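Hey L., structure's done. Input below.
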Amino acid sequence: MRIVGRQRWGLLAVIGIVALGVGFKTATATQGGTPQTTSQTTSQTSSQTPSQTTNLTVADIDRLMKQVSNWGRWGKDDQRGAVNLITAAKRKQAAALVKAGISVSLSHNPSTEKTVDNPSPLELTFSPRRPGSPVALDTWRVAHHGFTFSHLDALCHWFYQGKMFNGFDESEVTAQGCGKNGIEAMKEGILTRGVLIDIPRLKHVPYLEPGTRITREDLDAWVKMARVTITSGDAVLVRTGRWGRRAVVGPFSVQQLSAGLHVSTVPFFKEHDVAVMGSDVGLDVTPFGVDGVVNPVHTLVIAGMGVAVLDNADLESLAETAARLNRWEFMFSGAPIPVTGASGSLLNAIATF
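Output:
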């Protein structure tokens, strides 16, 4: 996800998260498992989707949070969120999709090169080898949140008015880690049906230009064109072509300007009850299109819906394979490293056809 200074976070990224949650906190109370706000409501009703062509306000996000919230849905103590939608039957359905036996990595190789889109590259250090030693040993140092590394966000990674998913308070996150909603809640891994939404292919372009807003109309058009149905418990991946563009033009500042989902699309994913969302950028379009709210899609999806987010996935090979096979569904699998209290994990997710 994208936020100024985030690349300096360590693996837990806890101090920055607490600061962010406090910085954007307003008066909030919890009632009946759904976040309640003191912001004035707009003239829109809860069944309406906000416009993707004009900037929204904090009040719009308040209303959308109530509309898409999954707080309390799986009990007041739940820390797994929408991953609960991946049932045994869902895993069997996903496994049955494997026909050709073709597997595709969804991870971009972690880079040790400092570039405009990777200001804090992975540091790979090898220990000196003793003469005659039969082993090679190395150490990694990586701030995995950011704009380069393919990683899965835990549910403690993002707050809404001082609360993380399911109403747990921001005070649960300390210098020692996330006391609630840490990545270890997903230790059993994620195996479910995956669906690719390829917006550049929809628009007949190799990639979207930075700043392009993906709208609800785009999503509906893709589902119709690809003849694919998104169902409860799916992992939905949205391609912008970011890595394809980078291969052509070189590194560019996705922090300042990138294609992505406009916040008006979030009800689409709630309506389809998705378990995991991902993209080849930080999910949100930049600029965000909301006055006074940072990363509004992340806010609603993680803090509201309890959906784990795969950021910076490399979807180029997936898109090529899916187009060649004319199949936009596949078995999605990934197992985050269960560091207790961590706010996320590097992830090499796999699509198997």
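Residues 1-49 have pLDDT under 50 and may be disordered. Residues 58-68 form the longest helix (11 residues).

-- N.
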